[in-house]
Amino acid sequence: MSNRKLDCATDGSADLTPSAVDDRPHVVILGAGFGGLACAQVLGGRAVRVTIIDRHNYHLFVPLLYQVATAALSPADIAEPVRKVLRRHRNIDVVMGEVTGIDTDARCVRLASGYIPYDRLVIATGSEYNYFGNDRWKAFAPGLKTIADARKIRARVLRGFELAEISKDPVEQRMLTTSVVVGGGPTGVEMAGAIAELARWSLRRDFRNIDPTCATTMLVEAGKRILAPFPEDLATYASRRLEKMGVTVRTGQPVEDIQESALTIGGEVVRARTIVWAAGVRASPAAQWLGIEADRLGRIPVRADLSVQGCTNVFAIGDVAAAMDEQGQPLPGLAQVAKQQGHYLGRSLAEQLERASPVQHFRFRNRGNTAVIGRSAAIFDFGTRQLKGWLAWILWAIVHVYLLVGFEKRLMVSFQWFWRWLTYQRGVRLITDDADPPAERQTPPAAPAGKPSRAQPSKPQAGFKTG
Q1: Which of 323, 355, 387 lies at the terminal end of a domain, its last residue?
Q2: pLDDT in tens, 257-285
Q3: Cα–Cα dist 292/147, whole Å
Q4: Residues 168, 200, 234, CA angle at the centre, nearest 5°?
Q5: What is the average per-residue pLDDT within 337-364?
Q6: How many domains does the chain have?
Q7: pLDDT for 407-430, tens place per residue?
Q8: Do 261 and 182 sit in the same domain of this protein?
Q9: 436: domain CATH number?
Q10: What global pTM score does this model have?
Q11: Do 93 and 173 belong together in one domain?
């Protein structure tokens, strides 16, 4: 260990290992998401030292982040401090820091203020949204990966209705109350349905000069249909259900450009106050830290035991890993995949380090894929059978409550969901962030010359009071 410390400290940086070094092997986990946290919990109480590193001090339940963005839940409902989750395990330390690199020769993780040596390294740093080379769109169409993203989107949606209330121009009112979600995967479907429900039910009695039920919500998918990973009959059901809720579903039309309050879809300019990006993800830059070649989505190639190809004593799990199933197909970026990999790797590392047991191959057991569409409607795909409608919605709720960390969170979220279902209301309609540039413009930007502009393509431009 001392030699590795000297190698890591050649630039004069400090060893940031929290606990005193002893003879126990040291496992360092990067990321406190589903996979990293599951791995740490399994290693808790075992004869190893564990250090988990994350740039945030909390574990975030990302599948429910869209409900924070649409005023259904608060950030505290779906986030739990990592130290609180792991505090009963005396062999686990938590470090809040930003990883800047990995030295596999010296076996240490580099942070902005120092380094931490490891004997085994687990990379579980997740993913980020992929703008497919158009990173400038991010300023106008935020994704949904962090609490900050959710608060920004919530502020844009709610502020749009506030600005529409004081506007005297019907065209401007329609633009301000138009929301477009780009990407027809589960996140995009859930987000579009939640925005439509917010306008249709929660806000309908709160304004005097506008009618929120006439707001436009649009879901745009470049592929032939939404929910491509699901069977076609479930995708068709979801599309019809969204349209019944007032969501305009546009498929087979890729987004060509995004500007402030406007986007171009299939040669047509759509003016919208709120644009949300849910069109694809790429892995965190962990492959660059290791200096290895990643796949086209930036994921790290791993073996059947989740060890990184070309590296020694380094493992990758979750969205950052390009893991394959038994048929040679890539595993999807789902919470259940990351949690199963974390549990498996924690057990494997413990057995390997404590008893020198050989590492077994990871096998993913599919528990089903699901997406909620709106009030009392969801879909569930178990592979051999499918479920949709009310029963799927109940099952979706049970699964998500179960996956939340801590009894308190499960109880709070269950009560809020029941109250929201009973009253049609959302209780977190707070604008707490400056979601717009400092010089916010109430007047929308002009559409590019020679191209039509639409704000509400699926229904008449009516329903707003301008007197």
Answers
A1: 355
A2: 999 999 999 899 999 999 999 998 999 99
A3: 31
A4: 135
A5: 92
A6: 2
A7: 788 888 998 888 888 887 776 788
A8: yes
A9: 3.50.50.100
A10: 0.88
A11: no
